[in-house]
Amino acid sequence: MKAISRLPLPSPPSRRHWSKPDNFNPNPNLTHLSCASTRSSSAAAIAASLSPEKPVVVVGSANVDIYVEIDRLPVAGETIAARSGRTLAGGKGANQACCGGRLGHPTYFVGQVGDDAHGRLIEDALRCGGVRLDCIARVPAAPSGHAVVMLEPTGQNSIIIVGGANMSGWPKEPRGEDLELVRGAGILLLQREIPDWVNTQVAQAAKSAGVPVILDAGGVDSPIPKELLIHVDIFSPNETELARLTALPTDTFEQISQAAAKCHEMGVKQVLVKLGAQGSALFVEGKEPVRQPAIPAAEVVDTTGAGDTFTAAFAVAMVEGKSEKECLRFAAAAASLCVQVKGAIPSMPDRSSVIELLQSVQ
Prior knowledge:
The chain has helices at residues 35-38, 43-50, 92-102, 117-128, 176-183, 196-208, 226-229, 239-246, 253-265, 306-319, 324-338, 351-360; strands at 5-6, 56-59, 63-69, 84-90, 107-114, 136-139, 145-151, 157-162, 187-192, 213-219, 234-236, 270-274, 280-284, 290-292. The strands form two sheets. Strands 1-6-5-2-9-10-11-12-13-14 form a ten-stranded mixed beta sheet, sandwiched between helices. The chain has a four-stranded mixed beta sheet with strand order 4-3-7-8. Helix 2 (43-50) packs parallel to helix 5 (176-183), helix 3 (92-102) crosses helix 10 (306-319) and helix 10 (306-319) packs antiparallel against helix 11 (324-338). It is α/β, with parallel strands linked by helices and 362 residues long.
């Protein structure tokens, strides 16, 4: 693999009630330096020195999302005109990391971007979200990942992903500093927009250190390797992903429960199912499911990133010691706020907004 560069550490936000000003930049004089010149001590030691709490660590994808707003999806062979278009940072890993940062918990992102303009756009968005970037790598041999997001007036979207640096250029063995960071985490978040073998290696490292692992099912449409699932503590699909991966219907809650039970048989003890407007449910093997209704949004503008917001907010609440019901409520409130803003990363709520919403629906 060709040489990569790493970014230096920006100053982290405070954990409680942090809200990003419009012009927020934790380090306006930040320059891009090589890994060798910026890492005088281990990532885990740095994390420990900055906060008494263990950080959320996200290993995953980062994309540039090319949004096109359309009245309807085109049929085969048809060309239609978009009402508008724009380019924003996204990707399931970057989304979840930004959510953790915006919620004010120390959050690291481990991932890859190309050495290109899209990669710098992603870095800037993560930095402005309060995410620590010393473990993001630039890969000269591949372009940054990107996605085309077709957004309909209802807020529903259809997405096409080009993997780029998310899917190529990973070292055969995880970098030592990345593994050290993972082993020192409070929780590890994974998705399926990077190679499964990368996820498997970092999940195994986390599991061996007693770090809980959450795997978001979103990403490639293929069976999940058993060697990955056995290291996952919480598996988090939506109902469509749950149906596809278990080959069972998920039209009713009873059917969803049966599909979750099949996930238990596959080796996952906890299944966190995102049900959109129907809320969410946590299925813990041997226990009654815990259900959480959706918290209604004033207006659904764009559902992009809502699932990532839910999963990341649940993880933040979990690492902070909240109960299962509290985690579900906190995540539901964050997702409700997310769908009211266009874009993925721009829609991530801050902690004070989530708490305010929870208090208003108490």
